[in-house]
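Researcher: Sequence of ABC transporter ATP-binding protein follows. Predict its structure.
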Amino acid sequence: MRKALAAEHLTKAFGRLLAVNGVSLEVAEGSVHAVIGPNGAGKTTLFALLSGALRPDRGRVFLFGREVTHLPPEKRVRLGLSRTFQVPQVFPNLTVKENLQIALEAARGLSPYPWLRRKDRLAVEERIQALLERLGLEEKAQRTVGELAHGDQRIVEVGLALSLGARLLLLDEPTAGMSDEETWRTVELLKVLHREEGITLLFIEHDMEVVFGLAERVTVLHLGEVLAEGTPEAIAADERVQAAYLGEVVRG
Ligand SMILES: Nc1ncnc2c1ncn2[C@@H]1O[C@H](COP(=O)(O)OP(=O)(O)OP(=O)(O)O)[C@@H](O)[C@H]1O
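Model: Prediction complete. Tokens:
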């Protein structure tokens, strides 16, 4: 199995709180992997360690077989990792097309000037069209992103990640705050990206229907540690997992 991502014994403390405590995780290339856990389990902190937004106190991170523990986020992006957020990181005042164009030109090291070489401009134009189709955003290409529905803004953010050449997407609650219809459309889109573009997906999710609809493997975090890992079915049947969630409900 070729690994898109591996984390070894990652630990991160905030003061005396061990937010992530000795977490190891392997994500096979081309797989779909969910990270779940009660509030405060350490999921977001783990993603920050994997993307390079935070440095671990201990432990190592590998991307496609290469150690990246000490690389900043932008270097990890160049190796094929992109992270999306609950609040989409897009250029809200620009159109959908302009957003994709900026990311594509940046990824190709092209200068953002109108006198781009014709060959480069055509290549970018072609890729923009292909992405708009892939994302189902052709009709919204000229719309300002800040005016789009939340679900569409998050899809644009996925488009930016793809424009930057992502092979591994870290998605922080990809369907949070979405209507049922938007949730369904997002799940379908992620499936297509996985199946047809071979993109590896690692996502944090609270919605168990989404986890079951998408994930092949599930890692459960609890109090900063890996409580369990397995198929969605095995995880749903795991008594320790049920107890961890029950504890959350009881604590209120
Ligand atoms: N920058 C920070 N400074 C101090 N404590 C933090 C910081 N970031 C997170 N924490 C704490 O670390 C713990 C893990 O937080 P984290 O956000 O990673 O959990 P989570 O599983 O993503 O939770 P949620 O599902 O609520 O988003 C929590 O107790 C949180 O309060």
